[in-house]
Structure formats: structure tokens, C-alpha cells
Amino acid sequence: MSRAKVQIDSMSEMSLPLFLPSAPAETRAGAASAPKPPSYLRDHRKRLRSRFLEGGADAMPDYELLELLLMGAIPRRDVKPLARALLEEFNDLASVIAAPAPKLAQQEGVGPSVICALHLAGAIAARTARSRVLNRRVISSWDALLEYCHTVMSHRDVEHVRVLFLDRKNCLLTDEELGRGTVDHVPVYPREILRRALELGASALILVHNHPSGDPTPSQADIAMTERIRQGAEALSLVLHDHLIIGASAEYSFRANGLL
């Protein structure tokens, strides 16, 4: 797969204090004396910022949003070629932001500052989505809960298992990642999930895991594992409300499909 060749001076990233720890005084002085971006680039960035502030994200294509994000990480280079190359490599904006650091680092022009900026954007998106459901009744905030699950899991390249722990009012106490596996399998230990529920004083739980293939249809292993956890939860007076499988653009609910 071809992509634009981007030549990035590694020193332009290492001298940037925005995403890295503070540099020594002499390094900061050297950065302050570095040449400014050419006028055409400053004008281009100003236009991008103005369009975003006036029209919002809906008025801009993905590569321009990514370009805006990369501008802070690489302040003195044209980042449009890098934005386009990343989208070509990873297919869409969400996949770029969710891409693992080792895969990002293999892309020409990507250094620590770029990786930090991308993952910071992902962390902020996940934290924002989580705040909409934390300590709220899951039934009344179901759409927000699904949005959170998709934000956190739909673009992962290996399977992850998260468990949402609920109190007696079915409000979300917390959610935790309790398993990570391969592209088509993740080890799940019912005893650990139930032990954690008792530690937290939870009364109910919702299982969530992703299918990196994009198809949320459950496998026979998914169905069998869910039944084991349901039986164990019932023995401990806990309720397994649902098991959600998150795909690329859709989810599968065990309860909605009569499997719970």
C-alpha cells in the first residue's frame, strides 16, 4: 500500500515541549531561536483553525481534522502529507487514533510527539464518553453506554474484555478491562470476574468484548463462556444483565437476542 513520503526532522519533535517533559533551559533557548514556519504554512493553519471554530468538525474531512491534531505535535512542518498517509495506512480517523504505538512508530514521520498526540485524543474521547454513563442508571443512558463501548473498543486490533459493574440501582460503579488476547480469541476467567464483582460490592454486571473482524456475531465459545458466567453469578446472587459484542459499526446484545 503506497503512502506519501514524509521527511520529518527528528529534532523538530524532540524540541517540542507540548507533549514531552520540560527540556533544559539551553534546549528551550535553542527551540525559541528555531526558524518559524513559512508564511504560507502559517496562513494555511490559520485558515484550518478558523474553519474548525466557525463550522465545527462536520465541516471538515478527516484528513483536515487529523492535520489540526498533528499541528501541535509538529509545529514547523507541513503535516498534511503525514495526515493523508496515516489515513491511507489505517483506513479511518478512529483507527489512526486507536492504532498501537509500535504500529504508528513504523510509519515514516511518526515520532513520540505524534504518538502522544494521537493517543491523548483517544484518551480524551474515551474519558468524555465514560463520564456520560458513570454513576447513572444504565437503562436510562443505554445509548450513551453503547457509544462509550464503541469509543473504547470498536477499533482495537485484538480482542479485549471489559466488565461494567453495577450497583443495586443499576448505576455504573466502574468498568475494568479484565482480559486481552489475539485477533480472534481472548482468555476469560469467570472466577476472576465474579471475585472482582464481590470486591467492588456490585450487584450486577455487563460483559463487553470486541470482535476485531468487525462482525459482532457471537461464536459458540462466546455463548458457552457467557452461560458459565451467568450460572456463577446466579450462585452468588449477582445478575448478568447483558453481554455486548462490539463490532466495527454495530453491536450484538445477548439479552436483546434471547441468549440471556
Automatic annotation (TrEMBL):
Domain of life where this protein originates: Bacteria
InterPro entries in the record: MPN, RadC_JAB, RuvA_2-like, UPF0758, UPF0758_CS, UPF0758_N
GO BP field: proteolysis
Domain MPN intervals: 138-260
A GO molecular-function descriptor: metal ion binding
Keywords assigned: Hydrolase, Metal-binding, Metalloprotease, Protease, Zinc
CDD domains, per database record: MPN_DUF2466
Entries under PROSITE patterns matching the protein: MPN, UPF0758
Keyword field contains Nuclease: no
Coiled coil start-end: none
Similarity comment: family membership: Belongs to the UPF0758 family.
PANTHER family associated with the record: DNA REPAIR PROTEIN RADC (PTHR30471), UPF0758 PROTEIN YEES-RELATED (PTHR30471:SF3)
Stored NCBIfam families: PRK00024.1 (NF000642), radc (TIGR00608)
Name listed for the protein in its UniProt record: MPN domain-containing protein
Organism: Pararhodobacter oceanensis
